[in-house]
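Researcher: I've got a protein sequence and the SMILES for magnesium ion. Could you write out the 3D structure of the bound complex as structure tokens? I'd like something to compare against our soaking experiments later this week.
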Amino acid sequence: MQAIEKKPVKDVFGLDDPAFAKTQVKVFASTVDTPAIVDGFKFTVENLRRMMVWAAAASLPDNFFKANMKKNLMIFGPTGCGKTELVKQFAARTGRPLFRMQCSEDTDQAQLFGSWKLCRPIAKEEPGEDAGILEKGIQGIAKAIEKLAISIKRNTGVGPEMTFVDGPVLRWARTPNAILVLDESDQLLPTVSMSLNCVLDGDDIVVPETGERIKIAPGALVAATANTNGRGSAGGNGGSASLYKGTKRQNIASMDRYFVINTTYLPEEEEKQLLINQIGLPDVAATAMAKLAGKVRSLFLGLNEDAGANGEPLEFTITTRNLLNWGMSYRLFNVTGMDSKIAFTEALKMTLLDFGSAAERKAVLDLWETIVADS
Ligand SMILES: Nc1ncnc2c1ncn2[C@@H]1O[C@H](COP(=O)(O)OP(=O)(O)O)[C@@H](O)[C@H]1O
Ligand SMILES: [Mg+2]
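Model: Sure. Here is the predicted complex with magnesium ion in place.
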């Protein structure tokens, strides 16, 4: 499937920068798997440049280079800074289908690649909320019988009809110009990550259950997101990254197969623009809010990365997600007639501050008071 058109970067990503004067972007016909465009999503020049090189790697003419270029991109950075959305918006704007795998330490090959399912399942998907204990019990037994039937069928060929249902990796591999997103990929057990290495190398995928050999479709790309660089660091001086529970140190051979973007929250000025454009806040409010987010983050990121074994990390940050939600809940409190000053603190508490410890709440509210007094 060829690109249907080539367009200037400005038209596709809304970024007008001389860095892209010579760049044209391939745009494909959207499919049902292409994410929806979020209007006003902000790309940065640095990130977009690297993404363009990554995407180009998948559609170079034959023999452009003699060596094989990697087509995988790891985006790592703190929570809520827009890593997943960055990939989704890249796909949305370029019309690419996107297949997302939410990774956890329980993710296994069957979830990634696919597994056998009965054509007509014995058990219902999930018993309803109001199901009685008897119905739940029967469902549990049916599920166990189903598992047993699948295992007998696999081992002896005898039993009910089954179909092999593709997981996200196979659906991606069959779709031209698609992006596979391994979201929160540093949660994967290193052995599971390693099982993806042949996929990252672009090799044919042989499905052991069916014997099918799948050639990865042309134009296919892989993106992974993570909070750490796969070596227990959140990208600073190599501290503990201890807040990101469940992240695993990855095998260096896995990381070696990725290009990398170490990203972080947008600069204060850009976030201020988001608050103005996406939420309709006045300039003075947006300025103060973006400033608070910046200050809290510098404490969070600075302390955590250097906390090491004995440090006390500040467990509290303001993500872009929450900065926007603070603004939106403020607006809603405000339209109900709440005093503006109270609405700001109430909205901040409701969005995230009430998750904080007493000391954290006080520190952040004090900081907010100072910023408001200065503005
Ligand atoms: N650059 C950006 N422009 C606009 N909105 C953003 C941007 N980055 C993040 N956001 C907002 O923050 C939300 C969370 O981003 P997400 O991609 O889920 O974060 P992460 O994957 O890094 O945890 C997004 O849905 C979006 O509303
Ligand atoms: Mg994410």
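Model: The chain has a mean pLDDT of 89. The two ends are 54 Å apart (CA to CA).
Researcher: Great, I'll pass this along to the crystallography team.
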